[in-house]
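Justification of resources, computational component.

The compute hours requested in this renewal are based largely on the per-chain cost of generating structure records like the one below. Each record pairs the submitted sequence with a full C-alpha cell output. That output is archived, and it is also reused by downstream analysis tasks.
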Amino acid sequence: MIILGILKARSPRITEVARAIPRPFFAGHKMIYRFLKRAPLKEALLRLLYKDAPFVICDPTEIPRPQAMRTPYVGTFKGGKTRGFQLLVLSFPYKGRTIPFWFLVFSSRTISREETSRNLVHLKAFFQVKDLLGERPLVMDQEFGCGRLLSQLKEARIHFVVRLKAARHPIFTDKDGRKRRLSLACGERVFLEGLHYKGEVEVNVAGIWEPGHSEPLWIIIDLSPQEVLSLYRKRIKIEKSFRDLKSLLGLERLMNKSREYLKGMVALVLMAYGIGLALGEAVRERVLGGSRSYRLYSGLFVLLRLKVKVSYGDIPKIVEQSLSLFPRLALSPVPTHV
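The structure output for this chain reads:
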C-alpha cells in the first residue's frame, strides 16, 4: 500500500504518501510511521537483487537539505556551504537504468560523530553485501580510487572496476619497483597488468583516448583488463536512475527527523522505483512495442507520465513479466545475515 502511495503521490513525503493510499486501506500517516518502526525494510530491499546481474554499480548522490539546521544526520557537502546528506546506492543494470538493492545514509556530521571516515563508510556498505556480490565486480567512479580502500577490497576478494584520476598523476610501479608513467595518444588504447597502485595494491590498468575527448579514460581493475572499458561506460546508468528518482519520485524532498525513519523511507522509495521501472518496461514492450518515439523514456516515466491504454488481457502478462525479475520479492524470507 505504501509503495503504491509513493508511486501515486510521486513523493517520499509521508503525509503526501498517506493521502495517496486507497481509501479502504487509509489509516493516516501514523500508520506509516508504525510500519517504518517495525518492518526490516532495508533488508527486504535485498530481495530486488537479480541473481543473474552481471555486475553491480555503486555511486553516491547528494540530497540537499539547506533548512535542516538541527537534524542530527544532516551535515555539509564539500566546501561547507550547502547542508544535506549523502545516499550511497548499490544497484544492478536494467534496460538503460539501474535497480537499487542496498544503500547507506551518511554525512559529514555522522562521519565525525561516529569517528569514522568516508572510505570506511563505503567499505561497510560493501562488506554488508559481500556474500551477495559473489564474483560480480563493483563498478565505481574516481572518488573510490583510494589505494587503501582498493587494497581492502582485494583482500576481501571483492572485485572492482574504478575510474582513475589521471589528472593527479597517480604513482604506479612495476614488479621490479620501477615507476611507471601512464601515457596515451589520441585514438590509442592500452592494457597493462601487474602494476602496483600507490605501493599498496596490485592492479591491472586499461586506458583509451577516443577522438573528440579532451583526455584519456583510465580504469584500474583487479580482473582481466580487456573488457572493462565498455563495462565502466555502463556506470552512467546509475546517474540516469538518480535523475529519475529525483524528477519522478521527488527523492530530493526526502526528509525525516529520525535517521531510522529516513532509512525506512529510502528503502521504500528505492523499492517503488525498482518495481515501477520493471512495470513500465513491461508496458513499453507489450503495449508500445518497438516505437522509436518512446525509446528515450525510462520505464518509470512510461508508467507515471505517459497515458498508456492497457487492456485487461495485457495486465496479467505485464505483472508476470515484472515479477519474473524479482523472484525473491515474495517467495523467500527476509535475509537476516546483514
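Confidence is low (pLDDT under 50) at residues 332-338. The first strand starts at residue 56 and ends at 64.
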